[in-house]
Specification:
Layout: E1 6-7, E2 13-14, H1 15-21, E3 28-30, H2 43-49, E4 57-63, E5 67-72, E6 88-92, H3 100-104, E7 117-125, E8 140-146, E9 149-156, E10 179-183, E11 188-191, E12 195-201, E13 205-212, H4 217-229, H5 254-268, H6 271-282, H7 298-306, E14 311-313, E15 319-324, E16 327-332, E17 335-339, H8 344-352, H9 358-365, H10 368-380, E18 383-385
Antiparallel strand pairs: 1-2, 3-11, 4-5, 4-6, 6-7, 7-13, 8-11, 8-13, 9-10, 9-12, 14-18, 15-16, 16-17
Bound molecules: manganese (II) ion.
Manganese (II) ion binds near residues 134, 136, 140 and 197.
Length: about 400
C-alpha cells in the first residue's frame, strides 16, 4: 500500500504521518474511521463464542461478589441469565480467529506489520460496564462497534504506578484524567502503550480492540539466548589463552570482562540466528493447539488441488517471511524454513492471498521446492483446505 495516501481510517492523515507523529507516542481520536460501520457480530453471537471451549473469555462485574469480580470462560449457557442490569462487561479474545468478517477488519491495518498484531478482542458492556482504569504495555486501536462508550485517557504509567489490590486485574489506584470522548459506531481511538485509559459503556455497547504485541526486553534476551545455546557446543568456553600473570589472584581483572564481552558479542551479533529466532518467536500462534496439521501425501495434495480444492491460511496461524543472506526464510507458526530466492513470489502469495488454488498455485506445484513447501504447511496446519 502507498504510505502517502490519506486514509479515512486514520482521520485523513497518511500512514507515514501516523507512524511519525502518533504510533507508540500519543493518542489519536478518529471520528468515523469506518463510516456506517455495522458490527459483523451481535452481542448474542459474542456471548455464544464465550461458551466455546477453545475461546478465551472473561466477565468482569464492577459490583460482583467483590469489587471488579473476574469470572473466566468458557461459560455455561445460563451464565448470562443472572447478571445485573448494568456495570458488567464480557471480553472475548481473538475473535478474528473464529469470525472471518472480524478478521477482515485487519485489512485496515496493513500499514503495520501483520506480525505485530496480537488479536481482535471484542467487549460487550452494559451501561456503566468496563474494566476499570488501567494501562497496557501494547498499542491498541479501539473501534466502536455498536452503542456508545465513553473513553477517558490519563497519565503515562509504568510498572511503578500504584495499583488497586486485586488478585486478577491490574486496576490503577490513581487516574489523572487529561481528556475524554464518547465514541459512536465507526469511531476509533488509538492509544500508545502505557497510557492510562478508562472506558465505560453509555448504553449496551460493543467495542473492538485491535491489540498489538511486542516482546519485552527480558523476553528477547531469555528466549534468544535459549535458542542460541542449542547451537553452541559444550567445549566452547570462556578462555584466557595469553593471559598476564595475576598480581592478586583474588581480583577479577578488567581483561576478563573484555574476554566475556567478546564471547557475548560474537554470538549475540549473529544476524542469521537472530532473524531466525525473531521470526519464529513472532509467528508463534496465540493458541498453538488450534494449529494442528493433517497427514497428507504429495499425491493427495496434488489430486485435491487439481480437482478444485482450495487452501486457506489457518486463522490461528501466523506467517511472515524474510531475507537471510542470499536466501529467503518463511516463518510459519513458530517454525522456519530456509528457501531459495526463486520462491519469493510464492512466499508473498502464501502470506497474503485469500485462497490458494490451481490457478494461482499451479506453476509452483510444478516446482519441487514450491510443492514441498505447500505440502509441509498443510501438514503443519498453517494452511488448510477450505470448507466448501
Ligand atoms: Mn486496555
Amino acid at each position: 500500500m502507498n504510505p502517502d495516501i490519506p486514509l479515512q481510517m486514520l482521520g485523513g492523515i497518511t500512514a507515514r504521518e501516523f507512524l511519525r507523529d502518533y504510533w507508540q507516542k500519543k493518542p489519536l481520536l478518529v471520528r468515523q474511521a469506518i463510516s456506517d460501520f455495522e458490527s459483523p457480530i451481535s452481542p448474542d453471537e459474542l456471548a455464544g463464542l464465550a461458551l466455546e471451549e477453545e475461546v478465551e473469555s472473561r466477565l468482569i462485574l464492577e459490583h460482583g461478589e467483590r469489587p471488579w469480580e473476574l469470572r473466566r470462560g468458557p461459560f455455561a449457557e445460563d451464565a448470562f441469565a443472572d447478571l445485573p442490569e448494568r456495570d458488567w462487561t464480557l471480553l472475548v479474545q481473538a475473535v478474528d480467529q473464529f469470525v472471518p468478517e472480524v478478521a477482515e477488519l485487519l485489512q485496515n491495518f496493513r500499514f503495520l506489520p501483520s506480525w505485530r498484531i496480537d488479536d481482535v478482542m471484542i467487549s460487550f458492556a452494559t451501561p456503566g460496564g468496563g474494566v476499570g482504569p488501567h494501562f497496557d504495555n501494547y498499542d491498541v486501536f479501539l473501534l466502536q462497534g455498536q452503542g456508545r462508550r465513553r473513553w477517558k485517557i490519563g497519565q503515562m504509567c509504568d510498572s511503578d504506578s500504584p495499583m488497586l489490590e486485586h488478585a486478577d486485574l491490574r486496576i490503577l489506584a490513581n487516574f489523572e484524567q487529561t481528556d475524554e470522548w464518547v465514541l459512536e459506531p465507526g469511531d476509533m481511538l488509538y492509544l500508545p502503550p502505557r497510557l492510562a485509559h478508562y472506558g465505560t459503556a453509555e448504553d449496551d455497547c460493543m467495542t473492538y480492540s485491535v491489540g498489538f504485541r511486542a516482546p519485552s526486553a527480558a523476553e528477547v534476551l531469555t528466549h534468544f539466548t535459549d535458542f542460541l545455546s542449542q547451537f553452541l557446543p559444550d567445549e566452547e568456553r570462556y578462555s584466557d589463552a595469553g593471559t598476564q600473570p595475576a598480581s592478586d589472584p583474588h581480583q577479577i581483572q578488567r581483561d576478563s570482562l573484555d574476554r566475556l564481552k567478546a564471547l557475548l558479542n560474537e554470538h549475540m551479533g549473529d544476524e542469521r540466528l537472530l532473524m531466525t529466532w525473531f521470526g519464529q518467536f513472532m509467528t508463534e500462534p496465540k493458541y498453538p493447539e488450534l494449529v494442528a496439521g493433517t497427514e497428507l501425501s504429495e499425491d493427495e495434495l496434488l489430486d485435491q488441488i487439481e480437482n478444485g480444492a482450495m487452501l486457506v491460511r489457518n486463522p490461528s496461524a501466523r506467517l511472515a517471511w524474510s531475507e537471510v543472506g542470499e536466501d529467503l526464510v518463511l516463518f510459519a507458526s513458530g517454525q522456519s524454513r530456509l528457501l531459495s530466492a526463486s520462491l519469493r513470489e510464492l512466499l508473498k502469495l502464501i502470506c497474503s492471498a485469500d485462497v490458494l488454488h490451481m490457478e494461482n498455485l499451479g506453476q509452483w506445484l510444478a516446482d519441487d521446492e514450491g510443492r514441498n513447501l505447500v505440502l509441509e504447511l498443510v501438514k503443519q496446519g498453517s494452511l488448510e483446505f477450505a470448507d466448501e
